[in-house]
Amino acid sequence: MNIAVCVSHVPDTTTKIRIAADKQNIEQQGVSYILNPYDEFAIEEALKLKEKNGGEVVVISAGGETSKETIRKALAMGADRGVLLKTNGFVDSISLAKALAEEIKSNGSEIVLMGKQSIDYDNSITAQAAAEILGYGCVTVCVDLKIDGTKVIAEREIEGGREVVETSLPVVISAQKGLNNPRYPAIKGIMEAKRKPIAEKDAALGKVHTVLSELKLPSAKNPGRIIGTDSSAVPELVRLLREEAKVI
Fold first, then answer.
1. Which CATH class, in words, describes the domain spanning 2-202?
2. Which band of pLDDT confidence, cut at 50, 70 and 90, is reported for residue 222?
3. How far apart are alpha carbons 184 and 243 in whole angstroms?
4. Are residues 113 and 3 in contact, defined by beta-carbon separation less than 8 angstroms?
5. Taking 80 as the threshold, does the pLDDT of residue 188 lie above it?
6. What DSSP designation does 230 have?
7. Using only C-alpha atoms, what is the Rg of the chain?
8. Residues 6 or more apart from 172 whose CB is under 8 A from it?
9. CA 59 – CA 84 distance, rounded (Å)
10. Containing H/E element for 138?
11. CA-CA-CA-CA dihedral for 151, 155, 157, 162, to nearest 10
């Protein structure tokens, strides 16, 4: 079984983000990067499939030299080899999906897993776009996965519930929290990861669909206001909701 896992190298959510002077990048000083949390579920599922059916797990990431750190973590968890698709700066989701699809195709992967989204850009479109380019089936926000031969049965989250869908290999799966419990890399795995190969290639991005014009930080939220602490505050609260917030 040939399995590919696409992973992202993203800023840690505890990091304070500052926009660079060119407004095209973030200031790198003091920024910690991590393996995209949703991708950990994808890696774990790939490893479980390999342990059950045999085969190889290849980890693919697009980015700069530092993205190797994320690939190494996936290798420490148990993946067999890595591929770094070298890019510089912002890459739109469609161009990224094309580059990933090109590598997946050359690798002959019949099962492709990735997190449902990366926590930096939050586009949640790469899995669907890659599947369309490859001509593969696609299941998003997957919380349970069963593969029997070429038959794929997956449970996925929908608003207000879950649905069970059936498709066949080859397939692209985007993983949601709850699909499994990702393992922690053991010391042995961390040491072995240092010897596992990471191939480096220029990303085949093709035509660029979207250009980054400017990065901005979110607007500051308005501070809360305490109207009162007992029932005497109700008339004033109602007035503010009607006249200022205009919600009643």
1. alpha beta
2. confident
3. 54
4. yes
5. yes
6. S
7. 22
8. 112, 113, 114, 127, 128, 130, 131, 134, 136, 137, 138, 139
9. 9
10. strand 137-148
11. 130
Instruction: Return the H-helix or E-strand segment holding 100.
Output: helix 93-107
Per the CB < 8 A criterion, the answer to whether 176 and 156 are in contact is yes
Q: Token pair of 112, please?
A: 């492709």
Q: What is d(CA 113, CA 120) in angstroms, rounded to the nearest whole number?
A: 19
- Give me the amino acid identity at 178: G
Spacing of C-alpha 151 from chain mean position: 25
First to last CA, the chain: 59
- Exposure b/e, 17-35, CB count within 10 A at least 16 = b: eeeeeeeeeeeeeeeebbb
Give the SS3 label for residue 37. helix
Residue 70: half-sphere exposure toward Cβ, Cα within 13 Å: 30
Opening angle at CA 174, ends 173 and 180, nearest 5 = 95
Tell me the domain boundaries of the chain.
2-202
pLDDT of residue 205 exceeding 90, the answer is no
> In three state form, how does the secondary structure of 194-225 look?
CCCCEEEEECCCCCCCCCCCCCCCCCCCCCCC
9 DSSP 8-state letter = E
Residue for token pair 């990702």 = 182
What's at 156, amino acid-wise? R
Among 26-35, 43-52, 167-176, whose mean pLDDT is lowest?
26-35
Give the closest residue to 46 by CA, choosing from 218, 204, 155, 174.
Answer: 174
Each residue of 84-134: pLDDT tens digit? 999 987 888 899 999 999 999 999 999 999 999 998 878 889 999 999 999
Cβ contact 59:74 at 8 Å: yes
